[in-house]
Design a protein that fits this description.
Layout (H helix, E strand, L loop, with lengths): L4 H32 L8 H38 L4 H28 L10 E4 L12 E3 L3 H8 L1 E5 L6 H11 L2 E5 L9 H12 L1 H7 L1 H9 L4 E5 L10 H10 L6 E5 L1 H9 L9 E5 L4 H12 L3 H13 L4 H5 L3 H11 L15 H16 L10 H12 L19 H17 L2 H25 L7 H4 L1 H34 L4 H22 L1 H14 L7 H10 L3 E2 L6 E2 L2 H8 L22 H30 L3 E9 L3 E5 L9 E8 L4 E8 L10 E11 L5 E8 L2 E9 L5 E2 L14 E8 L7 E12 L2 H8 L1
């Protein structure tokens, strides 16, 4: 039944192709004809028809291809939703399981091969633990190779082992033999349901299978128990409370489901005993230390033909099977480090006899591993001291090392946190005054960490396509998307600034477009650096200049993986062992990473990654531009007025109706009496609100009313110094005149005083009473911007 998917997608392709082509051909001709009317070129109907047909065909093909891909992707989701128990659903799940199993085997075969598991195997024995971490269990003793049979038989198995005891290798080998998936628990947040995390992890680590079958198929594989989760490293989960983890695991897996969980014994015992919460159906087994005969036999095998240099070590192990050296070498990790450090006679193994304590021997082998891996005689490359310094920097990161973690932020001074508040303050100073500039600078600087903290909580993880296209291609993809975003923002913001300055503020074209270029470069460059790739780029450059990381980070990670220092069981790199990472942290400089986060759902796969990448920089940019745009909008909508008060000349009668409640309106009335043929002149000054600031006025405000003489006709002129500003007429038989209806002054003025002249133009024999309510001048804020940019 899987064969129905392609024919159905092909049918949808043809239907969409025909439908879209017909619709586009019908309306595209009218659109081209309409667009032609705005140009001076004589295109002609033949050329319009050709463009119509070509454009319609292109749109139809693009829509049909999109519909074809969408149908293929939605097929599995629709089948599983509407026919979950049908033959089609079973075929889909079986095909997805086969593809997943093959990918797991290929990946883990390469990973275990890099650990030299096959060339120098260590025989491990697993037995039922004697710790009080399970209700009741039969005594079980099996070889490590038989663990897969134990998992198939008991379904729920917990594997305990000390650090370096071989838990990870046994877990990976078990996942290869079962239809299972290897899932390191270091990225699990216990606040997230375990099932949701496992499904998300599968989508993240196997994106090609998720794209082929759909994320819902992978979730169904986990939910139905068709795939066995091999959960490695419960002790590596970063959380303060361990008890809920055991309960969540116990509730997640039913009797019909299978899982293998690994942990260090002390951690698991503490988590279980502290609240008496067992995994009710699980068998808990523990890895035995390597016994003395196996240890001696292993050392003889790695000695090869160089038994003379190893003789003292072999004799010491035989004579003191419980000594410090034998105790230190009782784990596969230490045996691996022993083989790498002393292979090919590069160092004398007898130096191990000089240590008195097992911990000192373990630390010696951990410290000697990196120099042995970067031995110039074995493989020329990086100097050891430089490689160790760079690895120590990475060791400060999380267990899973992904390239975007380098750019996830840290305790460094962000350029945007300094530049954008200064820009916002400068603009508000130019548009308003110095006090507004200081306030908006402080608000912008305060808002940046708040918005960043909010986005840190809301952000999703970046989609990982590293397993499909490779990390280098992954980086190129994100660099391209970041460049597209930055270019779009630069062109959009720069063009808007140029239009506003040139058209709205009458700035000189050269000056306007110069500032437009500066604004575009600033906003575009900042958005580029705030994207995932831009943040990674700037942080990588800073760390490279300080010597903490190489300039070419990805080749360094690839080389470290080839040398066996790093492993890559999934989409992310990890150190060979957590103990190696912990040991290198002692040499690390200041930290590089923020704490990692884990989301509840699956990460985005295709176009949704644009939203994930661009949401953060766009919201941050919008926040800062809001401190520039919002004051501009407020200044353009709200007219700020400056009250006038009497200075000299004809003194009016002042009536102050100021009130201090919300139920009334405060008003100040200035009253003059104008007899027939009278001319009155009064000088008034604007009360200065902010000292040391030059204020520009552009209009007169208030209400004029003439009473007592209906035939009165008055000409009112307002001048600033010797220049007339406004002239208008008011009649006694007219309603009160709102001065907001008058046009603004042709040229805003920075005047200290205005002279108001009243002249009677009529010949009526009556006295007119003139009232000016709330006399004031309207402040023009744009003149400061015009002056600045001109």
């Amino acid at each position: 039944m899987m064969r129905l998917r392609k024919p159905l997608a092909g049918l949808v392709f043809l239907l969409v192709l025909i439908t879209v082509w017909a619709i586009a051909r019908r309306y595209m001709g009218s659109f081209l004809t309409w667009a032609d009317s705005f140009t001076t070129l004589e295109i002609g109907q033949d050329l319009i028809g050709l463009a119509r047909d070509t454009g319609a065909a292109g749109v139809a093909v693009a829509a049909a291809v999109f519909a074809f891909k969408l149908t293929e992707r939605l097929w599995n989701r629709i089948v599983l939703k509407w026919w979950p128990t049908s033959e089609i659903s079973i075929e889909v799940l079986d095909a997805a399981l086969a593809a997943l199993t093959e990918e797991v085997n290929v990946r883990l075969t390469a990973e275990t091969g890099s650990r030299e598991v096959w060339s120098a195997p260590v025989i491990l024995r697993v037995r039922t633990t004697s710790r009080h971490v399970q209700r009741h269990a039969d005594d079980v003793v099996v070889d490590g190779s038989a663990l897969v049979g134990l998992v198939r038989e008991r379904r729920h198995v917990v594997l305990l082992g000390e650090a370096g005891a071989g838990k990870t290798v046994l877990a990976q080998l078990t996942a290869m033999k079962l239809p299972g998936v290897y899932l390191p628990l270091s990225s699990w947040n216990p606040q997230v349901p375990l099932g949701a995390w496992m499904a998300s992890k599968l989508v993240q680590d196997f994106p090609e299978i998720a794209r082929r079958f759909g994320p819902e198929v992978l979730r169904r594989l986990v939910a139905t128990g068709r795939v066995t989760p091999v959960l490695d490293g419960l002790d590596e989960v970063l959380t303060g409370s361990k008890n809920p983890m055991v309960e969540k695991i116990d509730n997640q897996f039913t009797d019909m489901m299978t899982f293998l969980l690994t942990s260090r014994p002390e951690f698991y015992e503490t988590a279980v005993q502290s609240d008496r919460q067992y995994l009710s159906r699980a068998l808990v087994v523990e890895i035995d230390p390597v016994d003395a005969p196996s240890l001696t036999s292993y050392v003889e095998r790695i000695a090869g033909t160089d038994l003379d240099s190893w003789r003292s070590v072999i004799d010491h192990l035989a004579e003191q099977p419980d000594g410090s050296l034998a105790t230190a070498l009782r784990t596969p990790l230490m045996l691996y480090l022993l083989r790498v450090t002393y292979r090919r006679g590069r160092r004398d193994p007898s130096e191990l006899l000089g240590f008195e304590e097992a911990a000192a021997i373990e630390n010696h082998l951990l410290d000697a591993f990196v120099p042995a891996a970067y031995d110039q005689s074995l493989r020329p490359g990086l100097p050891v001291d430089r490689a160790r310094r760079w690895l120590a920097t990475l060791a400060r990161g999380p267990r899973e090392l992904r390239w975007w973690n380098i750019g996830s932020g840290g305790p460094t001074l962000n350029v945007a946190m300094v530049v954008l508040p200064i820009v916002a303050g400068l603009f508000n100073y130019v548009a308003a005054n110095w006090l507004m500039g200081i306030v908006m600078t402080a608000l912008s600087a305060w808002a940046y960490p708040k918005v960043r903290s909010l986005l840190f909580e809301l952000d999703e993880d970046v989609v990982a396509d590293d397993n499909v296209i490779g990390i280098r291609a992954h980086l190129r993809r994100y660099r391209w998307m970041s460049s597209v975003l930055a270019s779009t923002i630069a062109i959009g913001v720069g063009g808007l600034v140029g239009v506003v300055l040139g058209g709205g503020f009458d700035a000189d074209p050269q000056v306007a477009w110069t500032w437009a270029g500066v604004a575009g470069l600033l906003c575009g460059g900042w958005c580029f650096l705030e994207t995932v790739w831009g943040s990674y780029f700037i942080r990588r450059m800073r760390l490279a200049l300080s010597g903490k990381l190489p300039l070419r980070l990805i080749p360094f990670l690839e080389d470290a993986h080839e040398r066996g220092v790093l492993r890559q069981p999934g989409a992310a790199y990890q150190f060979r062992h957590a103990r190696l990472q912990d040991r290198l942290q002692l040499l690390a400089p200041n930290g590089v990473y923020f704490p990692t986060r884990t989301t509840t759902g699956a990460p985005p796969i295709r176009f949704a990654v644009f939203f994930v990448m661009f949401r953060t920089p766009l919201i941050r940019l919008g926040t800062h531009l809001g401190f520039i745009v919002l004051p501009l909008l407020a200044l353009s909508i709200i007219t700020v007025i400056q009250p006038l008060r009497f200075e000299s000349g004809e003194k009016p009668l002042v009536q102050d109706d100021t009130c201090w409640t919300y139920s009334c309106r405060s008003e100040i009335h200035y009253d003059w009496t104008a007899p027939p043929a009278a001319t009155l002149s009064t000088t008034m000054v604007a009360t200065q609100g902010i000292p040391w600031e030059e204020t520009f006025f552009g209009s007169i405000r208030g209400m004029f009313d003439v009473t007592g003489c209906e035939s009165a006709d008055l000409e009112i002129s307002i001048s600033g110094g010797t220049s007339p500003l406004t002239v208008f007429r008011v009649r006694g038989d007219e309603p009160p005149r709102d001065l907001r209806d008058l046009p603004d002054w042709p040229e805003p003025r920075a005047v200290d005083a205005v002279t108001v002249t009243f002249r009677r133009l009529d010949v009526a024999d009556c006295t007119a009473h003139i009232r000016w309510t709330d006399p004031s001048l309207g402040i023009n804020r744009t003149v400061r911007i015009r002056t600045f940019f001109q």
